[in-house]
C-alpha cells in the first residue's frame, strides 16, 4: 500500500459526539490524553481517552461566554491549563479540569487608538498559547489588532500589534500563530496579507515579513512547520500555500462531501484523501504526533462531532484505549 509509506492512520474511525452544531475548535494536549472541542452551540466539551469507554462521552461541558461561538482552543505547554477564545472580546483561561481561572479584560471601545486600550474591543477570531513560555498567550480580533498577554495578569495586555495597512482604518485580523519556539508570530489580515513579527528587544508593530497578496480572501488558518522552515496558510479563496494536510468544505453541487487531503511537503502532490462527512465541511484538523491519530471536526446547525482516524498497527493509545473498553 503506497499510502503507508507516509504512515497515515486511516483504517479505523471513531466519532466524539455531543455538540448540537458545527465543531469549530479543537485542541489535543501534548501527551494525547485529553481532547477539547468547541462549537457554534456555544459550548466546550472535554474528553479523556483514559477515562472514556466505547460510549465516548465527554466528562465535562462548559459554556465560556453565553451566546458566543467558540472559535479556538489551545493547551498551555505543560497542559495544566487551556485558553478558550470565543466571538466575545474576552479570552478565558481554564485549568486542566475545566475550572475557570480568569478572563482577560475588555478594552474601552470609545478610545480611538487601539494601543491605548487595555484589551480587545470587539470579537476575537483566534488565540494560541506560547509553545514554550507557560505564562504567555497570543490573541487576534476583529478590532484589527493582535495582542500578547501574561496569564498572571488579566487586567491588561503586555503588547498590542497593529498590522501594516495600505490605508488607515480597521481591518480584522482573522487568525494568528506562534512559530515552534515562540520567537515569531504570524497574523492573517483581512486585506489578504500575511504579516510576521520577530519578537526581539525593542520590537514594535512593523512586520519583519509582509506578504502583501498572500490570498485573495479571508485567511482561515496559519501554521508554522515544526522545523520552522515553512509557514502554511489556508484561505476561503480555495487555495492552500505550502500545505501538508487540510480539511475541505462541502461544495454546493459536489458529491464528495468534506474531505481530508494529505500532500507531500516537498513535491506538493496529493498523496491521499479520505471522506469524513458526506454532508458537512471539515472545520478543524489535527495530526497528533505521539498518538499518530488524525482528528477532524465537522457539523451543521443540528449536530457536530470530532472524527478520530487511527490504525491499530500504526497508532498508539488515544482512541485505541476506549474502543477496547466496552460500556459497563
UniProtKB/TrEMBL annotation:
<feature type="repeat" description="WD">
    <location>
        <begin position="117"/>
        <end position="159"/>
    </location>
</feature>
<dbReference type="GO" id="GO:0035861">
    <property type="term" value="C:site of double-strand break"/>
</dbReference>
<feature type="repeat" description="WD">
    <location>
        <begin position="173"/>
        <end position="200"/>
    </location>
</feature>
<dbReference type="InterPro" id="IPR001680">
    <property type="entry name" value="WD40_rpt"/>
</dbReference>
<dbReference type="GO" id="GO:0005634">
    <property type="term" value="C:nucleus"/>
</dbReference>
<keyword id="KW-0677">Repeat</keyword>
<keyword id="KW-0853">WD repeat</keyword>
<protein>
    <submittedName>
        <fullName>Transducin/WD40 repeat-like superfamily protein</fullName>
    </submittedName>
</protein>
<dbReference type="InterPro" id="IPR036322">
    <property type="entry name" value="WD40_repeat_dom_sf"/>
</dbReference>
<dbReference type="InterPro" id="IPR019775">
    <property type="entry name" value="WD40_repeat_CS"/>
</dbReference>
<feature type="repeat" description="WD">
    <location>
        <begin position="16"/>
        <end position="57"/>
    </location>
</feature>
<feature type="repeat" description="WD">
    <location>
        <begin position="212"/>
        <end position="241"/>
    </location>
</feature>
<dbReference type="Pfam" id="PF00400">
    <property type="entry name" value="WD40"/>
</dbReference>
<dbReference type="InterPro" id="IPR051858">
    <property type="entry name" value="WD_repeat_GAD-1"/>
</dbReference>
<dbReference type="InterPro" id="IPR015943">
    <property type="entry name" value="WD40/YVTN_repeat-like_dom_sf"/>
</dbReference>
<dbReference type="InterPro" id="IPR020472">
    <property type="entry name" value="WD40_PAC1"/>
</dbReference>
